[in-house]
Write a structure and sequence with these properties.
Low-confidence stretches: 1-7, 719-723
Largest sheet: 8 strands, mixed, barrel
Strand content: 5-15%
CATH superfamily of the largest domain: EAL domain
Shape: elongated
CATH topology of the largest domain: TIM Barrel
Number of domains: 3
CATH class of the largest domain: Alpha Beta
Distance between the termini: 113 Å
Radius of gyration: 43 Å
Length: 723
């Protein structure tokens, strides 16, 4: 029978915790007794040694009990403190037994060796935590060290090195102590500022080292200034340092102190910023103290410290900027990639599709695209679970991407739909490649796909719509197949254009009723919404040609009045097509181009070049249906139109609606300020016309003033409506 090895029970753990607390508590009571009780000099000295030996021994026992995989750092730290305990014993012998007054003395060598071991141990612990934020922590530690080094050098090292009463060996020894403290401070800052868990053992270790450093500096300042007070309060800092180190090594959390932290990046804490700020101003404070006390200012030391600090701060700023740039790149990459499959997302697809169309035009090469839909994916999810469904999506992307070339792109279009961009492929080769992808679909699954070719001069969306239509034809035909889109032919476009006719509706002066222009309106042989017919034509790839044909037909209407304006409609989709400009009449004198706003938010500033091209051909500009679209006032500011046409939903009923009338009056004021006229559409009631006249509207159009007819309206005014 195999016997299982059990870890320590809860009772054992509780017992060990109580023993640990009891040991630390006993040491703290001993320190309190040392400070408070009136002990003799000899007894006090041996009590001091006993507390130090006990604390270091308990720490060594704790390291041995924990059986650390990385315990070299802890052993070096404890060895450094152990050497200080030995140094204290040697110093007692020198002072109390041998009555020696030497500098350097044997105890000095032991003390200085303790600094080396202690600093090396803390450095080992710090380097074990360096995997996250290594460079930043190193720079922060350097800033703290250099900041503290300036006053240390000015007030401790320089006076000791220049003390003429000491021998050269004495000067070196006296200077070695503050240098040792700086070394320990540097590695302590390195440890404290490196990302990692702030465990109880970590806090005990930092507290012990800080307590020791404060006592050291106080002792050195007292020695150099001649105001050294050999009292129990001076010993308190060193004794608390011994106890804190022993407590740190005893605590179970010391196992994780030397372990690398999880990778995490974040802004420095407020405490860390406070430490860095304090260290940065220390050279300036040192200079002020030197000046106020009348001391000889150590310009070289302070100046060098300030220069080094400035360089370190700049290096830290550079590192921080590099980190921010890396994170910005990572965020940008995440924004362009589907988080589940790793494939480019819909946003990236839209961007790359436009870029591919531009490249295909520049290189005069074909461009095909495909829309893929996994067959019965919902059924697969219901049968196998969403995790398996996600695994299928990831596996399909991996298999398909491996088959595609460097210039080709697979993107997740949405849900179980994917889009493929195939530069350099026509319909035939594009279909063959997509069919090869179909056979690579993992898990025995299939997909349906539609392939379409982009035609130069047409909108990219038309090719996507054609591929999508082919996809649904593939699904209706039984799935697991690839269908090719029907390319819009010249015959289809010609048939639509042949069934199109132009009618004109008069636009009258609102005050006099005189006809000042006509709007050309398109009608088709088949009944239906005209805007939908144009939208279908754009989706099929010839909407731009249809709009140009409508304008040519309107301009060519016979017996067109030369003293009247002709209003025609143009969409932003047509403006972006070079085929539209090629088919447009070269001169548009007397023509007012109404810029149609749709449900999309249009960036009119991006069309400023197109507007200039219209004006160059002699056309005037109008914004159509103001009050119905998303752009509204932005169109007025960017387009700077000659005519502003109010949407029928704004004008209708204005006679009985003061708010509508006030809105119209505001628009009239804006138009007047820019030199534009206002034309009210949809005028059907005499009362509305009167209200429009009253608020300053100059032009009017609607059934009240004339219906769309195949012929031009008579120029004379109709009988004025009764008032």
């Amino acid at each position: 029978m195999t016997r299982l090895q059990a870890g320590p029970s809860d009772a054992d753990t509780t017992s060990m915790s109580r023993a640990r607390h009891a040991a630390v508590g006993a040491l703290l009571l001993a320190v309190a007794a040392y400070v408070v009780l009136p002990l003799g000099e000899g007894v006090r000295g041996w009590a001091y040694e006993a507390i130090g030996v006990t604390a270091v021994a308990l720490g060594g026992w704790g390291v041995r009990q924990q059986r650390l995989p990385r315990r070299r750092g802890w052993l070096l730290v404890l060895s450094g403190f152990a050497l200080w305990v030995v140094g204290d014993l040697v110093w007692d012998v020198e002072q109390l037994v041998l009555h020696l007054d030497l500098l350097p003395a044997p105890s000095d060598a032991v003390y200085i060796a303790g600094y080396v071991l202690l600093g090396a141990g803390v450095l080992v612990l710090a380097r074990a935590r360096r995997e996250s934020g290594h460079r930043m922590a190193l720079l922060d530690a350097a800033i703290v060290t250099v900041g503290v080094a300036v006053p240390t050098a000015v007030f401790l090292i320089v006076p000791a090195a220049s003390d003429s009463t000491l021998t050269l060996a004495g000067q070196v020894t006296t200077s070695a102590y503050p240098l040792g403290d700086l070394f320990v401070l540097a590695v302590l800052a390195r440890l404290a500022l490196t990302p990692g868990a702030s465990t109880p053992a970590f806090r005990w270790l930092v507290a012990g080292l800080l307590s020791t450093l404060v006592a050291d500096i106080a002792y050195q300042v007292g020695t150099i200034t001649g105001r050294f007070d050999d009292s129990v309060w001076m010993d308190l800092g060193w004794l608390l340092g011994y106890v804190a180190i022993g407590a740190a090594a005893l605590h179970p959390s010391m196992r994780t102190l030397a372990e690398p932290p999880p990778d995490r990046a974040g802004a420095p804490s407020s405490r860390q910023l406070a430490v860095l700020t304090a260290a940065s101003v220390l050279p300036g404070v040192t200079l002020l103290i030197e000046g106020f006390t009348g001391r000889t200012i150590a310009w070289g030391v302070i100046g060098a410290g300030i220069v080094v600090l400035a360089g370190l701060v700049l290096a830290r700023m550079g590192t921080l900027l590099d980190q921010v740039q890396v994170q910005a790149v990572q965020l940008a990459a995440l924004a362009r990639v589907d988080s589940l499959t790793g494939a480019p997302n819909r946003r990236t697809w839209d961007h790359e599709l436009s870029r591919a169309c531009a490249q295909a035009l520049d290189r005069a090469e074909p461009l095909a695209l495909a829309i893929i839909d996994l067959d019965h994916f919902k059924r697969y999810n219901d049968a196998h679970g969403h995790q398996e469904g996600d695994r299928l999506l990831r596996g399909a992307v991996a298999a398909w991407s491996a088959e595609l070339g460097e210039r080709q792109m697979l993107a997740r279009y949405g849900g179980e739909e994917f889009a493929v961009l195939l530069p350099g492929h026509d319909l035939v080769s594009g279909r063959e490649l997509v069919d090869a992808l179909r056979r690579l679909t993992p898990g025995g699954q299939t997909f349906s796909a539609g392939v379409a070719a982009w035609e130069p001069g047409t909108e990219p969306a038309s090719a996507v719509a054609a591929a999508d239509a082919a996809l649904y034809r593939a699904k209706r035909s039984g799935r697991d197949r690839v269908e090719v889109a029907d390319r819009p032919t010249a015959d289809i476009a010609t048939a639509v254009m042949r069934g199109m006719r132009i009618v004109v509706q008069p636009i009258r002066d609102a005050a006099t009723g005189r006809v000042v222009g006509h709007e050309a309106l398109t009608r088709f042989a088949e009944p239906g919404d005209v805007r939908e017919r144009f939208a279908e034509a754009h989706a099929l790839g010839f909407g731009d040609l249809l709009e140009a044909h409508a304008i040519r037909s309107a301009v060519a209407l016979p017996q067109r009045p030369v003293d009247q304006l002709l209003f025609v409609n143009v969409s932003t989709d047509a403006l972006t097509s070079e085929r539209f400009w090629d088919a447009l009449p070269e001169r548009l004198d007397g023509v007012v181009v109404e810029l149609v706003e749709d449900a999309r938010a249009v960036d009119w500033s991006a069309h400023s070049g197109h507007l200039d091209r219209l004006r160059a051909r002699g056309a005037r500009l109008a914004v159509d249906d103001l009050g119905a679209g998303a752009g509204e006032l932005a169109r007025l500011l960017v387009v700077r139109p000659d005519v502003v046409k109010l949407d029928r939903h704004v004008t209708r009923g204005c006679a009985d609606d003061d708010l509508r009338a006030d809105l119209i009056a505001m628009i009239v004021g804006l138009a007047d300020a820019s030199g534009a006229q206002v034309c009210a559409e949809g005028v059907e009631a005499p009362a509305d016309l009167e209200r429009l006249q009253a608020v300053g509207v100059q032009l009017a159009q609607g059934f009240l003033l004339g219906h769309p007819e195949p012929t031009w309206a008579a120029p004379q005014p109709d009988p004025a409506p009764s008032r």
